[in-house]
Design goal:
binds adenosine-5'-triphosphate; 10 helices; L-phenylalanine transmembrane transporter activity; ABC transporter ATP-binding protein; Rossmann fold; nucleotide-binding; alpha/beta; ATP-binding; globular; six-stranded mixed sheet; P-loop_NTPase
Length: 258
């Protein structure tokens, strides 16, 4: 079997008494699509921090493309091919869309002038933002801001793209647009790990789903398998984020809801 693109090996992280990651082991292959669900405070964004290098684990190892990256910071990991979006995007609002993406290609991806322009243009093309290249980022609507956030991550040239709740706040048709953009990125060979509360968006894309709760995985399998897991249903029951009827509807639509 080929080496997975990403491997977490018994990773643990605590902030004082708060357990963020408890002995997590997890692997993702090249071009895989993995969805991560879990209630608020489950440790999902922190998991991204551990993968991207924004957080250092207390114990365990993170490997990327067969290399131990545990001690590398986020900029070094980004240059190796781990790109991420943030739950609260912070574009440079006075800069144009193109300039924002160019900065990501140069600062995040470490690309030089000509290559950075090409990467920025490609990222805008893949996210459907080419027509807004000269618009100041501060003037964008919500969907365009989400596209820009993805374009910024894409411009760094990732082999692995971490998406943190990019569908939040969008209408159903907008979510569909976003899913198609992500599908297109994945079709280019980029592995995607997507944290999302909008379960329907996830189930329309991912092959595999995991559920995080209290810093532990309580489900890992196809979306239908995970959503049918009693423990997963239990933690979501009464949740305002994903109600039981949404899970039922996804399950009724069949394996993965696709
Ligand atoms: N720097 C920090 N110091 C202390 N506690 C932290 C820190 N960062 C996160 N936490 C705590 O760790 C837990 C997990 O947070 P995290 O943001 O990873 O959860 P999440 O699953 O992404 O939640 P949400 O769905 O609300 O975004 C929370 O209890 C949070 O308050």
């Amino acid at each position: 079997m080929s080496t997975p693109l990403l491997e977490l090996d018994h990773v643990t992280k605590r902030f004082g008494r708060v357990v963020i990651a408890e002995d997590l082991s997890f692997s993702v292959g090249a071009a895989d699509t993995v969805g991560i669900v879990g209630p608020n405070g489950a440790g999902k964004t922190s998991l991204f921090g551990l993968i991207s290098g924004d957080l250092a684990p207390g114990a365990g190892q993170v490997r990327f493309a067969g290399r131990n990256v545990t001690r590398l910071d986020s900029s070094a990991r980004c240059r190796l091919g781990i790109g991420r979006t943030y739950q609260v995007p912070r574009p440079f609002t006075d800069m144009t869309v193109f300039e924002n993406v160019l900065v990501a290609a140069q600062q995040g991806g470490g690309l030089r002038r000509k290559a950075s322009y090409a990467a920025a243009a490609r990222a805008l093309g893949m996210t459907g933002m080419a027509g807004e290249a000269n618009v100041p980022a501060g003037r964008l609507g919500l969907l365009a801001r989400k596209r820009l956030e993805i374009a910024r991550a894409l411009a760094t040239g990732p082999q692995l793209l971490l998406l943190d709740e990019v569908a939040g706040g969008l209408t159903d048709p907008e979510v569909t647009v976003l899913v198609e953009i992500i599908r297109g990125i994945n079709a280019e060979g980029v592995a995607v790990i997507w944290i999302e509360h909008v379960v329907r968006a996830l189930t329309s894309l991912v092959d595999r789903m995991t559920c995080l709760y209290g810093g532990e995985f309580i489900g890992d399998g196809t979306p239908a398998q995970v959503l049918a897991t009693p423990r997963v249903r239990e933690v979501y029951l009464g949740s305002e984020i994903v109600d039981a009827s949404t899970i039922e509807a996804v399950l009724e639509e069949g394996e993965g809801g696709r």
